[in-house]
Amino acid sequence: MGTLVLHSRALTLRHLRELLRQPWGLAIALMQPVIWLLLFGSLFQDALTMPGIGIDDFRAYLTPGIVIMTAIFTAGWAGMGVIDDIRGGVMDRLLVTPTSRSALISGRLIHQSIEVLIQSGIVVSLGLLFGFRTDLTGLLVLVLSAVLIAWAVGAASIGFALVTRDRFAMIGVNMIILPLMLLSTAFMHPDLMPGWISTVATVNPVDWAIGGSREALGSSPDWTLVLIRIGALGVLAAVASWFSVRSINSYGRSM
Amino acid sequence: MNQRSPSRDAIRADGLTRIYGNDTPALLETSFTVGAGEIFGYLGPNGAGKSTTIKILTTLAKPDCGTAQIMGIDVVQDPQAIRRIIGVVAQRSGSDPAATGRENLTLQGQLHKLNPRSLDRRVSELLDRFELSDAADRLVKTYSGGMSRKLDIAMGLIHQPAVLFLDEPTTGLDPESRRQMWRDVASLARDEGVTVFLTTHYLEEADHLADRIAIIDRGQIVVEGSPDQLKAELDGDAIHVEMTSEASAIAAQELLSGIDGFGEIQVENRTLHARVSNGRSSIPAVFSALDSAELSVAAVTLSRPSLDDVYLRYAGRSFQAGATVQAEQEES
């Protein structure tokens, strides 16, 4: 256990250093959410502000969806760093040292969680300018949901990277993110969706993150529902972590 | 062959076999030992099985058959213990280009759980030793090929390993950096008593650096010994006669095999290789024999025995030809 903590910290710092050296990477990652919140949000602001069904202000309604979306898009690329490490020989070099295999994955995911926290803070701040309002509990649930879904997606992305060792597979993984967003309540109230999409949304983990957050941000949250959603995300993150650790353990066998 | 007790061997490989898919084996029942403190040159063309051997010894791959121990520890049974006592410098650099030299070394030390204070000291020491102190705080992506290679070796040495694996350390380096690297590797073994397992496809490199070499060809070790020993086993000089066609080379082979003092005649494409007891007197004999048969000679070269000749004798083809054949096999 001590080894895992020690190695995770050393490897997290490696990735954080990279983030600090290239902060514009973070800025590029924030282009998308800003476009969605500013342009997409403004475009439908008048048409979709419907206090009757619970959208008091469309851009405010959209904000938690964009926080989750930003987190998932960041996480989807986690595996790309692994592929760069494999190609550059960094992975082999790490594997011939007594480094904890789990730490090779947790180091990346802890770094990613920090990145998600920073991004969420920026998107929420932007949302506040457009009428988004939250209390501390609501904010915590939103950020926790973002970190958990990002952890699950990031671990899966790293696992696929180790199995396929192929950049194109990474692009494939990221291609399914937008459809998953559109099959959730990220951009639309469930009452206004076609029936089949709201059915699909109930089994879509993206929607667990968004639905749970909106519930906690609402005026009278159903906490049982919130906890179930968070719990489901936690289980998903655990399963994805197991898959990625398994992938790194079998990585050497095919060589 | 000098006899060593098992405990004195740094590396002992016994019948290592590795087969990929249903193809020809990458390694076939390969056995060798490396003595403690020795520089062992593992020599062969690309695709001969060098990388597979290194991957097995450094715990990255498992053998299908056979066993290997490093300092008496089995590589398959206890890979984690092996990883603590080996340093590895792979063909591809493996340093993080987005970090500085110092950061790369420090991370490597942290992963080996060196205590922070002695780690700082060790890092400065290695930066000094490999003349990287001035570049220590620059990103590795700005390093030259030679500097980056030095950093790789420093990273492999951070935890003072008992055995250092160098997988083609000078491939891609300019001649000056290559010579510098040779000096570094030689002093490593001499001053620090590190056992070095060096793979190379440069005969010259193995000749210059290695205390003992093994020549590997198509997954099997064909000969093992010190470079001088191996060269001394070849009698006389090597003569290479380049003919104008393969047919005339074969005709020349028949002619020359009848002459006294010509042995081990082999033909490879248009060139005929032979061993001669007396190099200087054999050249006129070659010309007179071939002239009388009206075979035209493109070029004749005479040389003292080299490792290339050793390779030719044991692998049945010249080193360059071996490299080409292996490359073709890998592509198909």
Poorly predicted residue ranges of chain B: 1-6, 326-332
Q: Based on DSSP secondary structure assignment, what is the total number of beta strands of chain B? A: 14
Architecture of the largest domain in chain B in CATH?
3-Layer(aba) Sandwich
Radius of gyration of chain A: 19 Å
Distance between the termini of chain A: 28 Å
Task: Tell me about this structure.
The complex is a heterodimer of chains A (255) and B (332). Chain A has helices at residues 2-21, 23-29, 31-48, 58-76, 78-88, 90-95, 101-129, 136-164, 167-175, 177-182, 195-202, 205-217, 223-251. Chain A has one domain (2-254). Chain A is built from 13 helices and no strands. With 255 residues, chain A is mostly helical. The model of chain B is unreliable at 1-6 and 326-332 (pLDDT under 50). Chain B has helices at residues 50-57, 79-85, 101-111, 116-129, 145-157, 175-192, 203-209, 227-232, 246-257, 279-292, 307-315, 319-331; strands spanning 9-18, 27-35, 39-43, 65-70, 73-74, 86-89, 163-167, 195-200, 212-217, 220-225, 237-243, 262-268, 271-276, 297-303. Chain B is α/β, with parallel strands linked by helices and 332 residues long. In chain B, helix 3 packs across helix 4 (116-129) and helix 3 packs parallel to helix 5 (145-157). Chain B is 40% helix and 26% strand.
Brief summary of the model shown:
Chain A has about 260 residues and is mainly alpha-helical. Chain A has helices at about 1-20, 25-30, 30-50, 60-75, 80-90, 90-95, 100-130, 135-165, 165-175, 175-180, 195-200, 205-215, 225-250. By secondary structure, chain B is α/β, with parallel strands linked by helices.
List keywords for this structure.
heterodimer; A: 255 residues; mainly alpha; 13 helices; B: 332 residues; alpha/beta; Rossmann fold; Alpha-Beta Plaits; 2 domains; six-stranded mixed beta sheet; four-stranded antiparallel beta sheet; 12 helices; 26% strand; elongated; disordered C terminus
